[in-house]
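From the methods appendix. Each design record in this collection lists the tokenized structure first, followed by the designed amino acid sequence. Records were kept in a plain field format so they could be parsed without special tools. The example shown here is representative of the layout used throughout.

RECORD:
FOLD TOKENS (205 positions):
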């Protein structure tokens, strides 16, 4: 399996709408008798990306088509950045994992900043190659420690002392193409391609 990079966005080439979201793998059954609800919470939540491009010029369209053909349907993967994302604070304090055996939606970390807000809800970081998002503000205690509350579960248990990757250039995920039939949008040799839609789903190791 190969992992490729998506063409770089610029002022004249970026999605007109859509973005990154986490799809939680839950199911709800509603009783036909009394409308009671039964919720099943399953593993396997993942990032999904849905991008729409109102207009793409021929050069960018051909570059995208070439990349999509390299993916060979679902076979290969692609690095995707959320072009709309930015840290709200910037993760001061050089946070690292504190403790062993951690997984799920809570992560203990340590920093060199005490009694400080180091990140805000919806801020992100990368750990073990996985893009992770917060659901609550991260505030350190007197010792510089903090428990992060996460929107998506940590899948690979990190070693204590592993640094959280917070560089904005690293805020990317690895994705598979969710709908390879979308290649049909690039038929022909037009000057402009309109209403292009692309969907991706996070690659789960």
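DESIGN:
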């Amino acid at each position: 399996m190969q992992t490729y990079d998506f063409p770089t966005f610029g002022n004249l080439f970026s999605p007109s709408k859509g973005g990154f979201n986490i799809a939680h793998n839950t199911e709800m059954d509603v009783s036909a008798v009394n409308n009671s609800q039964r919720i099943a919470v399953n593993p396997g939540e993942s990032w999904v990306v849905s991008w729409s491009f109102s207009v793409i010029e021929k050069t960018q369209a051909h570059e995208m088509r070439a990349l999509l053909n390299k993916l060979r349907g679902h076979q290969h993967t692609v690095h995707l950045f959320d072009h709309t994302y930015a840290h709200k604070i910037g993760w001061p304090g050089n946070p690292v994992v504190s403790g062993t055996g951690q997984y799920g939606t809570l992560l203990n970390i340590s920093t060199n900043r005490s009694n400080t807000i180091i990140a805000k809800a919806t801020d992100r970081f990368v750990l073990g190659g996985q893009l992770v998002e917060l659901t609550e503000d991260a505030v350190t205690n007197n010792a510089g420690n903090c428990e992060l509350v996460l929107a998506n579960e940590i899948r690979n248990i990190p070693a204590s002392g592993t640094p959280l990757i917070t560089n904005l250039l690293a805020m990317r995920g690895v994705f598979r193409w969710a709908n390879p039939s979308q290649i049909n949008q690039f038929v022909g040799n037009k000057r402009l391609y309109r209403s292009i839609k692309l969907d991706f789903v996070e690659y789960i190791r």
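APPENDIX NOTE: The CA atoms of residues 57 and 192 lie 5 Å apart.
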